[in-house]
Design goal:
The complex is a heterotrimer of chains A (329), B (313) and C (336).
Chain A lengths: L2 E14 L2 E14 L3 E5 L8 H7 L6 E9 L2 E2 L5 H10 L1 E4 L3 H4 L6 H12 L4 H14 L5 H4 L9 H13 L5 E5 L7 H18 L2 E6 L2 H7 L2 E6 L2 E7 H6 L4 H9 L49 E4 L2 E3 L15
Helix pairs in contact in A: 4-5, 5-7
Chain B lengths: L17 H10 L8 H11 L1 H23 L33 H37 L1 H16 L2 H12 L3 H28 L2 H8 L4 H37 L11 H10 L6 H28 L5
Helix pairs in contact in B: 2-11, 3-4, 3-11, 4-5, 4-7, 4-9, 4-10, 4-11, 6-7, 7-9, 8-9, 9-10, 9-11, 10-11
Chain C lengths: L8 E12 L9 E13 L4 E5 L6 H8 L7 E6 L2 E2 L5 H8 L2 E4 L13 H12 L5 H14 L16 H13 L5 E5 L7 H18 L2 E6 L2 H7 L2 E6 L2 E7 H6 L4 H9 L5 H6 L30 H5 L5 E3 L2 E3 L4 H4 L7
Parallel strand pairs in C: 3-8, 3-9, 6-7, 7-8
Antiparallel strand pairs in C: 1-2, 1-4, 4-5, 9-10, 10-12, 11-12
Helix pairs in contact in C: 3-4, 3-5, 4-5, 5-6
Classes of the chains: A alpha/beta (329), B mainly alpha (313), C alpha/beta (336).
Chain lengths: 329, 313, 336
């Protein structure tokens, strides 16, 4: 796979009333063409900020440092107009709540064709034909007449489909999905995931999928990055991460997911404590207050990322085995 | 049977375990919570324009309460030696005197006092009527709401200036009448805003939770609806006061304000405007006071709005 | 089947219909059948799970049980007492015994009240016999039980994370010592690692206090861990009722099978084998439900009869199923 996106040492900071908040600290990501990267992150972990920074969509009080290269071209520091062109053509992003990204006063058709007419100087009829094709690609039946409807006339799942169609219009190289299924029913979630998988195969779009649900990650991701408190905890391909994880947080996450395919346990296993508060991160490893393997030095310094195997990195001091000996029994 | 229990991921159980201690360490430091009001106050203090406005307004308010008591002259007391004199140190007429030799400084203080009083009292009148009317309509809902709001609509369509003028002509010029007349005009806006807010609050989950907790309707309105209305009402009030002051100035300009020789800022401006060519200070000084007071209220209102709902900016 | 006396809550043919005004000037009012003929019962100390997609009427059902929305017809019997005909004063007596935990913990807590006041409030209304100090002691004890620190008492709800806020919501519901707690999707909006904490907490509290739960959820995973019996709802109607083990091992209704198949499995190898989605179609508008069986528009086995005739709940072995073809269902599971 050819390298598409290269993120190095990216940090995102916000100036807030409580002082400077570090939403993301020194993270590295690579994304190959057509690859699906799953990003696991609990709420309060600065989840979307990395990717908003990539898109140049950070809030006013935020700024990013480090390097984000798309095809070797540095994106941080581009002018707003350059960024806006790139967003339409190379990068696209869908959000948890499609209603916030859709204008309730404009028809779906208008919102879809506007982008094409503006960015690619298409004629209206051509743009409409493209929009219909995009809606058909996300399995919205009767696409022609749907163009004349308003966002509120769609159900949550259909709106998310419209968002995907809208973002696929320009056939971007990278589609960033920020928890697109969290607010949806499991049944609709299954449909959206199947749709994303299908679109990727058809158009070769690389996908970044942000979620806190490992079940979803298992369905869609090829490589997985686990973040906590804005720090990279572990990164590996999906099979390694689920079967040979080396970080206590990954272990805790995997074990606290109730599973349908196994016998029911009397009690669920949990990670104690609360999700991180970015404004009050502990010194040292952000996961240390909730970690079962915590050592004295964890509370003093953040462990460096170490390479365990090719393509598998983790940041943890714990040297011994993680307690997973019973899992196979 | 497969088990995923490793022994190290102990089941979290409330009231015990190491986690509790870790949490306790990090959270015990802040025992007293910060209420939304405290948050808002903190943000308001950081808003320079609002803070400055509060200080200026405070100084004017204190001055116009204290100075008329202690000043050398009364508001109706003429100084026959100095008629129509511009500001001077002679006899401490620092703002000058008018055609009757009355000290403008003390008259501006009296005028500010009356104007502020009209602003605050008339707004309070409209607040009491508006909040109770709006909250009742919003909470009861249904046809009662419909009737009550149609009544508001009808009042809205009554031309109020002629109405007030007729009141004044019929009952004579009386400061209490001014309060009531202006209050009766301006409660409609508050009623509409409060009713809209109440409607949306009534559907909030915490109100439903209160109903499930067995609270009576009255207790819900008192404990949950009204406290959550205060924010928006406070903002609206700070923005209503200046418009009431301007309305009073307008009435005074028409000669329907307080009875002479008592005066208000509007009355002073009106008097000053007639002698603009010979004694411009008689217009300029009260006009500056009127402008500063109105500006201050507007800045405070805007600051409060931002402070109370930072998301809405 | 359970004996009459065993039932804490018994719901018979419950209907909650809302009349929606027609658009513009039209006088045609539309009727939304949010809950349309639902019956079930719960024994004391048990947990009944109620599962369905959003828009299936489960939240309306929860609110109807506590008389927070008006019931159109049918009966709700709590400890043998009919709730639908009670006046406000009598209802207050019931509220002490039946409480609710809401889905969105932050929205269900008044942002202008402290934690202590929020938890005290139901006691003020429902247990006026308690003195101020008694109330204070009970608040502190309750807070400890749900895993809040005594130092949290003067803090405001908006300062807490979702998981902690839900603990406050649980404390508020349990402080009056109810017998029945309706949990309206209490974990849906929480993070994965917090979800299981809250479920475990609910289970602990149930064991300690002998509580009866009505646990509502939109997916089958959390229900599996807490409920003994499960009711599957679709467009306001009951599709299937069965014991937990039966419903997960032998789901008979095609909708139940679809719900189970839709849950993502956190194992990449298994997940990739089941790549073909078993989920078909969209939830129809509850204003215009399909004729006959409500599920037929998405059902892979729908036949003509399903459009003509509405299937009633029938007992088949250990389950109650509302499907014309329930007998044929087990061999040919939908999933896969």
């Amino acid at each position: 796979m050819a390298q598409l996106l290269e993120i190095r040492d990216l940090s995102v900071h916000f100036r807030t009333e409580d002082g400077l908040v570090h939403a993301v600290s020194h993270v590295d990501f690579d994304l190959g063409e057509g690859e699906v990267l799953g990003v696991v992150d609990e709420s309060g972990s600065g989840k979307s900020q990395t990717w908003l920074a990539v898109m140049g969509l950070l809030a006013q009080n935020g700024y990013a440092t480090g390097s984000v290269k798309l095809h070797g071209r540095e994106l941080l520091g581009l002018s707003p107009s350059q960024l806006s062109h790139m967003r339409g053509v190379q990068l696209a992003m869908i959000f948890q709540d499609p209603m916030t990204a859709l204008n309730p006063y404009l028809t779906i058709g208008r919102q879809m064709t506007e982008v094409l007419q503006w960015h690619q100087k298409m004629r209206r009829s051509d743009a409409e034909a493209r929009a219909i094709k995009a809606l058909e690609a996300v399995h919205i039946s009767d696409a022609g007449s749907r163009l004349k409807t308003y966002p509120h006339e769609f159900s949550g799942g259909m709106r998310q489909r419209v968002m995907i169609a809208m973002n696929m219009l320009a056939e971007p190289e990278i589609l960033i999905c920020d928890e697109p299924t969290t607010a949806l029913d499991v049944t609709v979630q299954a449909q959206i995931l199947a749709l994303l998988n299908e679109l990727r195969e058809r158009f070769g779009t690389a996908i970044v999928f942000i979620t806190h649900d490992l079940g979803v990650i298992a369905q869609i991701a090829e490589r997985v990055a686990v973040l906590y408190g804005g720090r990279m905890m572990e990164q590996a391909d999906v099979y390694t991460l689920f079967e040979d994880y080396r970080h206590p947080y990954t272990e805790g996450l995997l074990r606290s997911v109730p599973r349908m395919d196994e016998d029911r346990t009397e009690r669920l296993l949990t990670i104690p404590g609360n999700p991180p508060n970015l404004a009050m991160l502990p010194k040292g490893c952000p996961f240390s207050p909730r970690c079962a393997y915590v050592e004295a030095r964890c509370q003093q310094q953040m462990p460096e990322l170490e390479v365990i195997a090719p393509g598998h990195v983790r940041a943890c001091f714990h040297a011994g085995e993680l307690g997973r000996q019973e899992t196979g029994a | 049977m497969k088990t995923r229990y490793s022994g190290r991921w102990f089941n979290w159980y409330p009231g015990r375990g190491a986690v509790e201690k870790v949490q306790a360490l990090s959270e015990d430091e802040m025992i007293q919570g910060r209420s939304l009001w405290q948050d808002a106050w903190r943000r308001l203090r950081r808003n320079r324009a609002a803070l400055l406005s509060m200080i200026v307004l405070g100084v004017i308010a204190v001055a116009c309460i204290v100075i008329p008591w202690v000043w050398l002259y009364g508001y109706a007391q003429p100084n026959w030696d100095l008629l129509n004199h511009p500001p001077t140190w002679k006899g401490w007429h620092i703002f000058g005197t008018d055609a009757l030799g009355r000290d403008l400084f003390v008259r501006v203080m009296w005028g500010s006092r009356i104007s502020l009083m009209v602003g605050v009292v008339a707004t309070l009148v409209s607040l009491i009527i508006g909040v109770s009317w709006g909250a009742m309509a919003g909470y009861i809902g249904g046809w009662v709401d419909g009737m009550m709001m149609r009544f508001v609509d009808i009042l809205y369509s009554v031309p109020f200036i002629p109405f007030v003028i007729i009141l004044m002509v019929l009952f004579g010029r009386n400061i209490f009448l001014i309060f009531i007349a202006i209050g009766a005009v301006s409660w409609l806006g508050i009623a509409r805003i409060v009713r809209g807010q109440t409607l949306s609050l009534r559907k909030k989950e915490f109100v439903e939770a209160a109903r499930a907790s067995g609270l009576s309707s009255r207790a819900i309105v008192r404990h949950h609806i009204v406290p959550n209305l205060i924010g928006i009402v406070v903002v609206y009030v700070t923005l209503t006061i200046p418009s009431v002051i301007l309305f009073e100035a307008f009435l005074s300009f028409l000669g329907l304000g307080v009875q002479a020789p008592m005066t208000s800022l509007g009355g002073l401006v009106s008097d000053g405007a007639s002698v603009l060519q010979s004694s411009p200070y008689l217009l300029i000084i009260p006009a500056i006071f009127l402008g500063v007071i109105v500006y201050c209220f507007n800045f405070i209102g805007d600051g409060l709005r931002d402070a109370l709902d930072p998301k809405d900016r | 089947m359970m004996e009459q006396a065993d039932k804490l809550l018994e719901v018979t043919d419950l209907k909650v219909h809302f009349t929606l005004p027609g658009g513009g000037w039209s006088r045609n009012k539309q009727i939304l059948r949010a809950v349309d003929g639902v019956s079930f019962s719960v024994a004391p100390g048990d947990t009944l799970g109620i599962v369905g997609e959003s828009g299936c009427g489960k939240s309306t059902l929860a609110r109807a049980l506590l008389c927070l929305v008006p019931v159109t017809s049918g009966s709700i019997k709590f400890k043998g007492q009919e709730l639908t005909t009670l006046d406000d004063a009598a209802m207050r007596g019931i509220r002490r015994n039946a409480q609710i935990i809401f889905q969105d913990p932050l929205a269900s807590l008044d942002p202008r009240m402290t934690v202590g006041n929020i938890i005290t409030e139901p006691m003020r209304a429902l247990m006026p016999e308690l003195s101020r100090t008694q109330r204070h002691e009970r608040v502190l004890a309750m807070m400890q039980q749900v895993g809040l620190l005594p130092s949290h008492i003067n803090r405001y709800a908006h300062e807490f994370s979702g998981g902690q806020a839900q603990r406050i919501g649980i404390a508020r519901a349990l402080v009056v010592e109810p017998a029945l707690v309706v949990c309206d999707e209490p974990v849906s909006s929480l993070d994965v690692s917090i979800k299981s904490q809250v479920i475990n907490l609910l289970q602990n509290l149930q064991a300690e206090r002998g509580l009866t739960y009505l646990f509502i959820a939109h997916d089958l995973t959390s229900v599996r861990h807490i409920a003994q019996r499960v009711v599957v709802l679709y467009l306001g109607r009951v599709m299937e009722v069965a014991d937990r083990d039966t419903i997960y091992r032998q789901p008979r209704h095609p909708y139940t099978q679809m719900l189970i198949a839709a849950v993502p499995i956190p194992d990449p190898r298994v997940a990739r084998e089941h790549k073909v989605s078993a989920v078909r179609g969209e939830l129809p508008s509850p204003l215009k439900p399909p004729s006959g069986c409500a599920f037929r528009t998405r059902c892979p086995w729908a036949i003509e009869r399903c459009a003509m005739e509405r299937p009633e709940l029938r007992v088949i072995e250990n389950s109650q199923v509302a499907c014309h073809r329930a007998e044929e269902s087990l061999g040919s599971k939908l999933s896969g």
